[in-house]
Design goal:
Layout (H helix, E strand, L loop, with lengths): L1 H26 L5 H7 L2 E6 L2 E6 H26 L6 H26 L16 H11 L5 H25 L6 H19 L5 H18 L4 H10 L7 H16 L3 H14 L2 H25 L6 H8 L2 H28 L10 H10 L5 H10 L3 H28 L31 E3 L6 E7 L4 H16 L3 E7 L9 H13 L3 H10 L6 H10 L8 H17 L7 E4 L2 E2 L6 H14 L1
Parallel strand pairs: 4-5
Antiparallel strand pairs: 1-2, 3-5, 4-6, 6-7
Helix pairs in contact: 1-5, 1-12, 3-6, 3-9, 3-12, 4-6, 4-14, 7-8, 10-11, 12-16, 13-17, 14-15, 14-17, 15-17, 16-17, 19-20, 19-21, 19-22
Protein name: Na(+)/H(+) antiporter NhaA
InterPro entries: Na/H_antiporter_dom_sf, NhaA, Thioredoxin-like_fold, Thioredoxin-like_sf, Thioredoxin_domain
Subcellular location: Cell inner membrane; Cell membrane
Length: 598
């Protein structure tokens, strides 16, 4: 899910950038007057004497963008129930960092605008634009590891939720009580359908549209409806029963192909996946490649003539927004990360260094979509409106450049990000201190030219993604062998140590690699009951000789710590620490280089 999300958002960045440039060109062309005229074109729905009408810009900002925020709600719901936000120790640091990354930029802005005509724009520099940030990280490449992407994505989710709350609380001008009561009744009707387990899409679409209209008429911004409905969508992990039915249906189609069997197989496979995940898969491309770029086209256009730029250069609004994004975000996220780590409130994923974290904090100053959104709510004066937009463009561009420079020059010069009770920052070894021996778990030929040693954790999602990649490398390279050593991250993954014990029990029966593959294929199901079931499949007694198993795992862990392993997965290729990306192409290149030098 996370990888698919990253691909979609990063790939759409170029489309979003093109839309932004087109808006600026249009607003500064000889036909500039048509830009505002076009987006103020009214469009509505009428039925008899009843009519509902908005101009095109409001249809985009209030209507289409509700789908964008609906997707944020879906993402929040998924991450809380099944993803990264279910681990409180992992969410604590990015959540506090997100809070700091909003509080400090708002403070920087108010330092320049408190009591002035632009004071209401303090919310403009608070939000991070996920699409642009992930696009910059895609350009950065291997200098931004997966754990940092995961950290920044979690931060962005919390950031979006806080931004929506701020919009709802501070940028609601007036309330219509009858419309608000109508919205409450419609929301109750949706909750009732959910409680009764009635899953008819037309009913939800009709009620959702009516709720959107009622919320819009109430004075509360309808984006709140989008995220609320997204959070309400069911999300669940596939049950064994549904997976079994799906497998049987697919097998039935394979043995006797027919249109009816194909339809049944597709239906069973679809039902095994939650509605939340299916909606994300369908709506993300529309949001990323259509809705957000159209929003940029409708809102990013601002005149950049000499008078406007001179006014912006001395405007506390433009300067406050730019400094809030460039300086406020960087300082706020840095402080918001350092504080919970210092107090031991949580941990960071993977083996991050402070240079990488600084780069991530810098690029988080790219505030575009939600920032433009708040500009439209905060300023009625056209001059302040344009100055704020110029501040957004300048601050976001400078933040992107600063982040790229940090990743380019200083990303690997800091110490490991760790809580205060961890070992102090150190110069980590670059070679494997304990060579491969007869006690290791080895897959591949004994006289292989290239040996990959993996320190892994059966519950680590990054190890899970690496598992098929390493299998493919072994399949394509008969002169490569893989050595697996245990390194369970107990503070992050509560089932990792138990899974390692069961794997060692299987090793006692000569079935380590069978259990290794089985555990990685079922990473989301590693409770004691699950582990006992896997052991029964391989005719293994899971909890026998536990002291001996724990001692064996401890040997691997001690060798890992001596070799500078601080997170998983960590690879050594022919005894040398591997520092590249954990993708097939990067690891294959490293294997070929070691083969040539062997």
């Amino acid at each position: 899910m996370l990888r698919a999300f990253l691909r979609t958002e990063a790939g759409s960045t170029s489309v979003l950038l093109v839309a932004t440039v087109l808006a600026l060109l249009w607003a500064n062309s000889p036909w500039s007057e048509t830009y505002e005229a076009f987006w103020h074109t009214p469009m509505g729905i009428s039925f008899g004497d009843a009519a509902f009408s908005l101009d095109l810009r409001h249809w985009v900002n209030d209507g289409l963008m509700s789908v964008f925020f609906f997707l944020i709600g879906l993402e929040v719901s998924y991450e809380v129930r099944l993803g990264q936000l279910r681990d409180r120790r992992l969410i604590a640091v990015p959540a506090v960092a997100a809070f700091g990354g909003m509080l400090v930029p708002a403070g920087v802005y108010l330092l320049l605008n408190f009591g002035g005509p632009g004071a209401g724009g303090w919310g403009v520099p608070i939000a991070t634009d996920t699409a642009f940030v992930l696009g910059v990280l895609a350009v950065v490449g291997a200098r931004c590891p997966d754990p940092l992407r995961a950290f920044l994505l979690t931060l962005a989710i919390v950031d979006d939720v806080l931004a929506i709350m701020i919009i709802a609380i501070f940028y609601t001008a007036s309330l219509s009580v009858p419309a608000l009561l109508t919205a409450a009744v419609l929301l109750a009707a949706i909750l009732t359908l959910r409680w009764l387990k009635i899953w008819r899409a037309p009913a939800y679409i009709v009620l959702g549209f009516a709720l959107w209209v009622a919320t819009l008429e109430s004075g509360i911004h309808p984006t709140l409806v989008g995220i609320a409905l997204g959070i309400l969508v069911f999300v669940y992990a596939p049950t064994d029963h549904k997976l079994l039915l799906a497998g049987e249906a697919v097998q039935g189609f394979t043995s006797e192909p027919s249109a009816q069997a194909a339809r049944e197989a597709a239906r069973r496979v679809q039902r095994a996946v939650s509605v939340n995940e299916r909606l994300q898969l369908r709506l993300h491309p529309w949001s990323s490649y259509v809705i957000v770029p159209v929003f940029a086209l409708a809102n990013a256009g601002v005149s950049l003539d000499g008078d406007t730029l001179r006014a912006a250069a001395t405007s506390p609004v433009a300067i406050g927004v730019a400094l809030g994004l460039l300086v406020g975000k960087f300082v706020g996220i840095w402080l918001g990360t350092w504080l919970p780590l210092r107090l031991g409130w949580g941990v960071l994923p993977g083996n991050l260094v402070w240079g990488q974290l600084f780069g991530g904090a810098a690029v988080s100053g790219i505030g575009f979509t939600v920032a433009l959104f708040i500009v439209d709510l905060a300023f009625k004066d056209p001059a302040l409106h344009d100055q704020a937009k110029i501040g957004i463009l300048a601050g976001s561009l400078l933040a992107a450049v600063l982040g790229w420079v940090i990743f380019r020059m200083a990303w690997d010069r800091g110490g490991v990000c760790a809580p205060p009770d961890a070992e102090p920052a150190e110069e980590l070894p670059t070679t494997l201190t304990v060579p491969v021996g007869p006690g290791d778990h080895v897959r591949g030929p004994a006289k292989a030219r290239v040996t990959i040693v993996e320190y892994g954790d059966f519950e680590c999602p990054y190890c899970g993604r690496l598992h098929p990649i390493l299998a493919e490398i072994l399949r394509k390279n008969p002169d490569v062998r893989l050595v697996f050593r245990h390194f369970p991250l107990r503070t992050l993954h509560p089932h990792a140590a138990s899974a390692a014990i069961v794997a060692e029990a299987a090793a006692g029966r000569g079935k380590f690699w069978e259990m290794h593959d089985l555990l990685y294929d079922n990473q989301r199901f590693l409770t004691d009951a699950d582990l006992e079931r896997y052991a029964a499949q391989l005719d293994v007694e899971p909890w026998s000789e536990i002291p001996e198993r724990v001692a064996r795992i401890g040997v691997d862990e001690e060798s890992g710590r001596a070799s500078g392993v601080r997170g998983t997965p960590t690879l050594f290729i022919n005894g040398v620490r591997y520092e590249g990306g954990h993708d097939l192409a990067s690891i294959t290149r490293a294997v070929e280089q070691q083969r040539e030098s062997a």
